[in-house]
Structure formats: structure tokens, C-alpha cells
Amino acid sequence: MSNLLTDNPIALQALMNETLFSAGFTAEDVVLAEVSSPSSAVAWDSSNEEFVYRGDKSSGILFILRYPDYPYFSPKADEAFIKTLGALNIAAEQVAVLNLANPQNPNDFKRIMAFFQPKKITLLGVEPASLKLPDIAHNSYMRGRVATVFNTFSFEEMFVDINKKKLFWGEFKTFINS
């Protein structure tokens, strides 16, 4: 292990689980490329408000996600999000989208409720426990005094597993139209 060049656990996991091939570059080339390439950093939106979000919070419909690599969705997930809402005659601008990965957004459910005042909340790949909510099974919802919380998979999970997509769509239509 004396030749180990990284102690980053994510890098180690990737290195230990994949077959590696040399592309003819050295470790120094990789370090220089990482230092000179700031494109991997997310350009987070900012706001003077308590939360940074996209869309309209007055609709009472809130989508909560945690995408650390994008301000909101990946391009493919954004397209799927727009199509999903469009199929229900809802424009993406009519709902609020909150990315908890944005460092300006508090991960505090009470503050989220006070700020957005939603009636319907969809957790897209966000575990309810991370918001200190009771356990909610995937593709089911919990009715609260003020809002109903629908817990489902992230779009990336649905892209990989068509059954997750089918389960989501059937339950999501019922949830939004209720």
C-alpha cells in the first residue's frame, strides 16, 4: 500500500470496484488536470431569501431533491421532470423545486414548511429521515396536519429501473390529483 496515491474514500471505492486500464498518463497529469479544471464545481444559485429554489412557491406544490452535482436536476432528469408535470397539465414554473445540496438551503423541515407553506411535497430521492420525518415507504405518502409528503425515488433511480418508474407514475398521478 505504500504506492497508494490517494486516501479519498470515494476515489478508493471507485478504484477498488472497477477494472482499471492505463491511458498513458501519470498521476501528476491527473492532479494537474483536476487543479486546472474547475468545471466540476457546481455554480450554485443564490438568493437574498432564506431558501434558493426554482419555480413558484405559491402553488403549494414543492419538490425536494438533493443533487450535489447540479443546481437542480441533471439535464436528463430535468427533461423527465418537465415531461412528467406536462403530462398532468402542470408547467414546471408553477411548482417549487428545492435542492437541499445547495449550501444556502437549510436542511430543516420546519423551516421549509414555514417558508414554502406547501400542501403537497414530493421527496425525489431524499430520505425522510434526513429531514427528521417518520419513515415513509417509497411511492407512498404521509398526510400531515398541513401538507401531504410523497416519498419516491430520484429520477436517476427511475432511469435505471423501469419498475420504479412505473410505480412512481401510478402513485404520483393519484397524489397530485387528490
Task: Describe this protein's structure.
The structure is a single chain. With 178 residues, the chain is an alpha/beta fold. It has 2 domains: 32 residues, no CATH class; 125 residues, 3-Layer(aba) Sandwich (Uracil-DNA Glycosylase, subunit E). The protein is built from 6 helices and 6 strands. Strands 1-3-2-4-6-5 form a 6-stranded mixed β-sheet, with helices on one face. The longest helix is centred in the C-terminal third of the chain and has 16 residues. It starts with 8 loop residues before the first helix and ends with a helix. About 12% of the residues have low confidence. InterPro entries: Uracil-DNA_glycosylase-like_sf (IPR036895).
CATH architecture of the largest domain: 3-Layer(aba) Sandwich
Strand content: 5-15%
Helical content (DSSP H or I, runs of 4+): 25-40%
The count of DSSP E runs of length 2 or more, i.e. the number of strands, is: 6
Mean model confidence by pLDDT: 84
Radius of gyration: 19 Å
Uncertain segments: 17-25, 29-40
How are the strands of the biggest sheet laid out side by side? 1-3-2-4-6-5
Q: Might you state the CATH topology name of the largest domain?
A: Uracil-DNA Glycosylase, subunit E
Distance between the termini: 58 Å
Largest sheet: 6 strands, mixed
Separate helix tally: 6
Shape: globular
Going by helix content, strand content and strand pairing, the class is alpha/beta
Helix-strand string: HHEEHEHEEEHH
